[in-house]
Specification:
The chain is of the alpha+beta class and 139 residues long. It folds into 2 domains: 34 residues; 84 residues, SH3 type barrels. Helices cover 25% and strands 30% of the residues. Strands 1, 2, 3, 4, 5, 6 and 7 form a 7-stranded antiparallel sheet that branches. Strand 3 and strand 4 form a beta hairpin. The chain is elongated, with a radius of gyration of 22 Å.
Length: 139
Amino acid sequence: MNKTNKILLSVVIILVVAVLAFAVVYLWQRGDFKKSYYAVYLDTGDLYFGELSHFPYLSLSNVWYLQRDTQGTSLAEFVKAPWGPEDKIKINKDKVVWTAKISDASELIPYINKSSGQKNLPGNSSGGMGQPSSGTSTP
């Protein structure tokens, strides 16, 4: 390969890298890389909410779950569980019954974004689907 071909090849590679970098920055600023929230229902009956990732394994981060007890149903932050888990869970894909992307217009998104701890769910005349649990039940 002569000197001119090497220079031409180098210029083409630099241009391709620059275009790809520009595209990534543009899409990032537009918000196309924003993590969406998903609901994940397992065959155990547990329902989790969080930012779903498929690589390198199925996982949720910023995890919330429905906590049910005798007083009703409440939304609880997974990291606040009594055993102190990290805010990411790996999910056995064979146990997943369904997943659903949660709309940005959902009442759940503002709760997750502004809250920590345990909150009543929106949706009924008493201000929630139940009262927050004071017990230590787990998902």
